[in-house]
Amino acid sequence: MFFTVQEFQAKYPNITEIPENWQIEAVSQMILSQVALTRRDDSWNNTTVPQPIKNASLEQMRFMIEHDIPFVDANKVKAGSMEAELHTDYSTLALRYLANAGYLYRGTPMMSNWGISLPFGG
Q1: Beta bridge pairs of residue 77
Q2: What are phi and psi of 109, to 5 degrees?
Q3: Of 42, 58, 67, which is closest to residue 94 (Cα–Cα)?
């Protein structure tokens, strides 16, 4: 988890709904998934995570609470004959924190793949 309940309360004292640990972990994973692969570190915790990523995680939690966006484990919901795909929304401010600090994952440019040695033949 990239932040604690106490850090969240200190940053957003006007929000009365207090996140639970599983929600903090889910938000931290959401933000980690947006961090470039070469910049990720699975050992990060609330004391070692870079500040821009902590800020993005705190902002994403605020966004999820204020907009009442549900935490879901599946991306499809069915009710009888009706079916819908769910997409988790990201706070643009959270993504801006990551982008401004150079952490945002933008996919792999094709040129990056050219540096990989691919063996052909046998």
Answers
A1: 84
A2: -60, 145
A3: 58
Q: 13, 62 in Cβ contact below 8 A?
A: no
| Residues facing 82 on adjacent strands | 79
Q: pLDDT of 76-116, one tens digit each? A: 667 778 777 666 688 889 989 998 898 887 665 555 555 55
Helix (H) or strand (E) holding 34: helix 21-34
Reported pTM:
0.75
Percentages of the chain per state (helix, strand, coil), in multiples of 5 = 45, 10, 50
Long-range contacts: 114-120, Cβ < 8 Å, 24+? none
Report d(CA 108, CA 36) in Å as an integer.
Answer: 9
